[in-house]
Amino acid sequence: MRFTYRSRFTCTPHELFAFHERPDALELLTPPWARPKVLQPAPDLKPGSEALLAIPLLGPIRKKWLARHTVYEPPHRFVDEQVSGPFKKWRHEHIIREVEGGSELIDQIDYEVPFGVFGRIADRVFIDRMLKKMFAFRHEVTGRHCG
Questions:
Q1: Inter-residue contact 6 to 12 (CB < 8 Å)
Q2: Which residue in 15, 22, 30, 87 is a FRET match for 62, CA 20 to 30 A apart?
């Protein structure tokens, strides 16, 4: 499955990319209602660097999510991929393009859910809606910091 969310900002691509390189970017971009816990932020966005989170599944049950950066092309894109976690597959490409008046951020996620038909039902009922809400929050925060 593919999920895409895009927004325009008045800052330059370099400024937009630099925001994502901030040490606190993951914390800033994590919605409070999602309640994940960042156990170890990635030291940078370069290939091989990893971030470890604990995300809520049901009640107090949490699943560790290990993501590794695999592509680093400042100021145009970077990619992180799930090494282990709740999805069968998760590849998140952050694309930054120069546009008239600033820049555009495109978050493109290719993912596969586990549990066959039940996972696909969960995707239609919950996951797609959760991703839209999460990336609306992330892009709103990005806009506050980048314009």
A1: no
A2: 22
Both structure tokens of 141: 């925060």
**What whole-number distance in Å separates Cα of residue 41 and Cα of residue 115?**
29
> What does the buried/exposed string (b/e) look like for 109-145 if buried means 16 or more CB atoms within 10 Å of the residue's CB?
bebebeeeeeeeeebeeebeeebeebbebbbebbeeb
Q: What is the Cα–Cα distance from 79 to 92, expressed in whole angstroms?
A: 6
CA distance 125 to 67: 25
What does the alpha-carbon distance between residue 50 and residue 44 come to, in Å, rounded to a whole number?
Answer: 8
Rounded distance, CA 7 to CA 119, Å? 29
CB 81 within 8 A of CB 92: yes
Place of tokens 């597959």: 89
> What phi and psi, each to the nearest 5 degrees, are found at residue 46?
-75, 150
Q: How many CA atoms lie within 13 A of 94 on its CB side?
A: 25
Query: Would you say 64 and 52 are in contact if contact means Cβ atoms under 8 Å apart?
Result: yes
Give the C-alpha separation, 136 to 147, whole Å. Answer: 15
Q: How confident is the model at residue 60 (pLDDT cuts 50, 70, 90)?
A: confident
Structure tokens at 75: 């100021």
